[in-house]
Design goal:
Helix content: 40-55%
Number of helices: 6
Bound molecules: coenzyme A
Structural class: alpha/beta
Strand order of the largest sheet: 3-2-1-4-5
Order of helices and strands: EHEHEHEHEHH
Radius of gyration: 15 Å
Number of strands: 5
Strand content: 15-25%
Mean pLDDT: 95
Length: about 160
């Protein structure tokens, strides 16, 4: 049986922290579906298609990764993809509370699915997509926080 996991997120934009979880997730699963989702509480600057395209260009040759985007409930999407695991990264205790709530809500809707948490590596625990957008809006650089091609796309978007 193929061990397929879905790694959902807003990825607005994808950061080195996200990429770290993806790379480590690849060691655990046969297939990893990285899925750009809609988080209704967030105002995103990239469209889901643009975020998926950025992720695709970061992993051009990785055969175990599928990049996709979806609207609607995560559990419906995970079932549709015939995956059994939801992969999420946790940075801080405040992440933990939010993730705990989401995992329990998902478990109540889809008891057969498991959420697997990975501790974000310490060097990425201060990173968030919002912080990066803020830094770049005020002329700072995304070095070590986002890959160069994401930085270029973000700069273009912020200047448009
Ligand atoms: N390292 C560094 N930063 C990280 C990270 C890591 N490993 N993993 C996440 N982050 C940051 C992100 O940059 C992001 O920052 P931001 O808040 O400034 O944007 C934040 O942590 C979390 O974002 P991310 O993991 O990209 O997505 P999210 O928390 O917005 O995702 C969904 C939530 C999409 C999974 C959730 O809203 C969802 O499932 N939506 C579908 C609808 C649904 O089913 N809702 C019911 C859920 S119970």
């Amino acid at each position: 049986m193929i061990r397929r996991a879905v790694y959902p997120g807003s990825f607005d934009p994808p950061t080195e922290g996200h990429l770290n979880i993806i790379r480590r997730g690849l060691a655990l699963f046969d297939e990893l579906v990285v899925a750009v989702a809609t988080n209704t509480s967030k105002n995103t600057i990239f469209t889901p298609e643009e975020r998926a395209a950025l992720l695709k260009s970061l992993f051009p040759k990785e055969k175990k990764i599928r990049i996709d985007y979806f609207h609607g409930l995560l559990v419906d999407y995970v079932r549709e993809k015939k995956a059994s695991v939801i992969l999420r990264g946790i940075r801080t205790m405040s992440d933990y509370e939010y993730e705990f709530q989401m995992a329990l809500a998902n478990k109540s809707m889809a008891p057969e699915l498991e959420t697997v948490f990975m501790m974000t590596e310490g060097r990425y625990s201060h990173i968030s997509s919002s912080i990066i957008k803020e830094i770049m809006r005020f002329g700072g650089k995304g070095k070590d926080m986002i890959p160069p091609l994401v930085e270029t796309a973000l700069r273009k978007k912020l200047n448009s």
